[in-house]
Amino acid sequence: MINGNVYDFESIKVMLPTGPIIMLESISYKDKKDDEVITGINNLPVGIGRGEYSGECELEFSRYEYEKIDIYAASFGGFYNLPPIPVIVSYGHFGQAPVTDNLEVKFTERDFSASKGDKNLNIPIKGKLTAPIKSGGRPAYTPD
């Protein structure tokens, strides 16, 4: 539940530079900032040490959707030469303004596994965030 509204998987829309992802199996993204409490004499807190911001994103979709990315990547010299690309995730109920998360992701991993009995050949791709997530236009973190 978000802001008192119940969302389901059909509420999520994902857009890449290749267009909307129609055959999405799953999406996962997270970020963190590794701040730590600095202690002094007698282990009493004396301040906060600023840690690094980091995040990652994983998409799993059909082979058809992956092929669109692979064709797009060819103009950059291949999948691993892609620059960081925007991943736009929006969700919301009919009649309600959507909530939009903007990510910038450098994809660094892909998996082409398949097993006997698989009905769909899905391909997960993973990457690292190259900028803080913006949720509803608000950044999760602004460096000093």
Fold blueprint:
Elements: E1 12-16, E2 19-20, E3 24-33, E4 36-39, E5 45-49, E6 53-62, H1 63-74, E7 85-91, E8 99-110, E9 122-129, E10 134-135, E11 138-139
Q: How widely separated are the two ends?
A: 33 Å
Fourth-level CATH superfamily: Hcp1-like
Strand content: over 45%
Can you identify the CATH class?
A: Mainly Beta
Mean pLDDT: 87
Indicate the structural class: mainly beta
Helix content: under 10%
Write down the domain tally: 1
Radius of gyration: 19 Å
CATH topology tier name: Pnp Oxidase, Chain A
Q: Uncertain spans, ≥5 residues at pLDDT below 50?
A: none
Shape: globular
* CATH hierarchy: architecture: Roll
Order of helices and strands: EEEEEEHEEEEE
How many strands?
11
Largest β-sheet summary: 9 strands, antiparallel
What does this structure look like?
With 144 residues, this protein is mainly beta. The protein has a single domain, classed as Pnp Oxidase, Chain A (Roll). It is 8% helix and 47% strand. The chain contains one helix and eleven strands, in the order E-E-E-E-E-E-H-E-E-E-E-E. The protein is globular. The relative contact order is 0.23.
